[in-house]
Amino acid sequence: MQRILEPGQIEALAESAVPRIRLPDRAQVFELRAKRLRELAEGHAIGDYLRLMAVLADAQHAALATMDVSVPDAEQRRLAHAHGMPVAPAASWERDPRWRELPTRLCAAVAATAGLPPGVRDLCERLRQWTDDQFEAQADALLGARTDGVDAAAAPFVMGALQVYWVALASSLASGQVDELGARGVCPVCGTLPVASVVHADRRSQGYRYLHCALCATEWHMVRVTCSQCESTKGISYQSIAGAPDAVRAECCDGCRTYRKILYQEKDAGVEPVADDLASLALDLLLTEAGYHRGSGNPLLWQP
What we know:
Elements: H1 7-17, E1 21-22, H2 29-41, H3 47-64, H4 74-83, H5 101-111, H6 118-128, H7 132-143, H8 155-171, E2 194-199, E3 209-213, E4 219-221, E5 236-239, E6 248-253, E7 258-264, H9 273-278, H10 281-289, E8 293-294
Parallel strand pairs: 2-7, 7-8
Antiparallel strand pairs: 1-4, 2-3, 3-4, 5-6, 6-7
């Protein structure tokens, strides 16, 4: 006799059958992001900015190759599991002071690139003059998602350095060392909000949706047609701009009036959450006019 599964049972079966957490591949995270940013920059209204961020991603890739960090030990992981917390929460994790070398290293690589606006080199020179306390204060504000005291022009470079640090940390963990959280809307590694979600097309998790961490690039599974902000399954709609590529849409929730972008690899195998979210600002404007607000921002575009 054929057994008919209820929707909740189908979701439970799916959850047991697919990888729950996808830790970042440090060899590819920033390399793929840079490549995608350059592709999206062609003929784009903010093409110059996308190309600048591609240069930053190149510098992040080079910096990550030599970045070693301490990872949570067994006791820290045990406590995180016991309390249902991220294993290395960004807002409270004790950062290795060496991370402060990264912003100036990224700036040096950017400043050496030909064809950039003069203002970029001026910004890089200003960052080189910052004290350790200034870097730490900016990091605390950015990781705490505060708007007060944030230097908006410098934020992408500081955030870029923090991304290198946390990708190094996340990629050094084993999948069995990271547990799912009860709060599905935050990263199980660092507790940061997702920048977007992506529906994968690879053999390992084809057709399944993962939220993508804005900081450490960890991905974690969330059932589709579910609000990544309030976890409601009702009043979910998908919006896009007529004539725009259909690989990028906005998943909107009428309950909390929040949205996040959702990317489809089956429509475009090259989609990359940070890059494609940044390049689809026109969709953000459309949704703002419709009365929705973003669930969280893009790490490469800080708006005070």
